[in-house]
Structure formats: structure tokens, C-alpha cells
What we know:
2 domains, two-stranded antiparallel ribbon, 8 strands, 16% helix
Amino acid sequence: MSFTGKATYAAGATLPEIVEDVSDIIGIVSPYETPLLDHLGDPARPAISTIHEWLEDTLLPNRGQINDATYVNALTDTNFVVDDASIFRVGDQIQVEGSREVMLVTNVDTGTETLTVIRGYGGTANEALADDQVLHILGNAALEGADRPASRFTNRTRQRNYTQIFTSSVEVSGSQQAVRLHALRDELDYQKQQRLRELVRDLENCVINGTAPAADQEGSTTVRRTMDGVIRRISTNIF
């Protein structure tokens, strides 16, 4: 026989008699909130002023560029001008970016910024050279028993960045704080946690993409102090 008693649907579309099934966990759809900050961890030396300074050093460059629109256009050219010949040494194996040909530097003229090379070194196939091509120094091959090369070095530089103020606010009514809520014990505390998550997320964004003003970076009553992000600080070794 068919069922004729009371069923859940008999209470109506709103189901006023039935207790809601609400999870006691609040989900936040953000699997990676701050991947860079999480990877870096807490700093060994946190900033204690509005200006934070540090020293940077660099390795000697291993990339140059052809600067010769006159006659670097053939497969057999053995002399060509570069932007800065001082970064090259006799014995350097060099290679144009994207090319398989290896060239061996036999002479460096810093007066005319000209390199003399052996083309197709080691049996590699010659490829046409062109102005503005990037040259990679693969490494230097020294002669056995040769005198030491001239010393080369880089100078350390002092870098600085300004700290940025991140702010937010929380306000909860007395009634909202007093009533019983699903999945929460303290609305005020929860709102604080949410705003802190947002501030850390904003910090992550500014650490990566932040930009400082061109002038008055220290800030004023009308200029907001903003930090330079990682991308703005990187000037070399960009791929």
C-alpha cells in the first residue's frame, strides 16, 4: 500500500520544522594565499625603520650584445663590434642566443669594442650574425702554464627600500557579538582573522609588484609611502 503518514515534505517548501544541516567549518576558496611569503618564511632581520637598507654584489657578466650594423651579416665574419668588449677575454667560448655555433675569442680590442673570433669552433656549423644579438660566454679556456689573467672584480652597492603601511578596520555590533552563530564563537575575532588574511594577501602582491613613487618616497601628509616590489628591483638576469 502507498505511504499516507507524515513525511519531511509535508512541512512545506521551507521545511520550518527541520533543523538545518550546516557544517561547522567555514571554507575559504584560496588554496595558495601567499605562496612567495610562505616560501620565504619569517625574515632573519626584520625592518625596524621606515627605510630598510642592504648591500648587493653581482657576479661578473657573462652576457654581451653585438652592436655592429655595418658588416655583421655573413657566415664568415670574424670581427665584429659589441656593446662592451671589456666583459670578454681571450679564450672565451661564446655563443649567440638561440644558435648552436660556438666561437672562440682570439683578440679583444676595448678601444674599438671589437672582438676577433674563430668561427665554427669545434666543428660547429656557422650561423649568420646580426646586430643586437645576445652573446653568451660559455666559459674561458686557459693555456696550460700561462700567466694569470688580469684581476677583475665588482663593487658592492647599497640598496634601499621603504616600508609600506597596510591597514584595515573591524566593527561588529553588540547584538551580532551576542547572538549564537553557526561555526563561530566570536564574530569580532573572526573578522580580525579575515582582515589579517587580506592584509597578508595584499602584502604578497606588493612584495611582488609594488611600485614606489618617483619622488618623496619617504611619504608625507599627502604622499603615501609605498614599497618597490621584487619585479621592480630586478634589473639584470631577466629571462
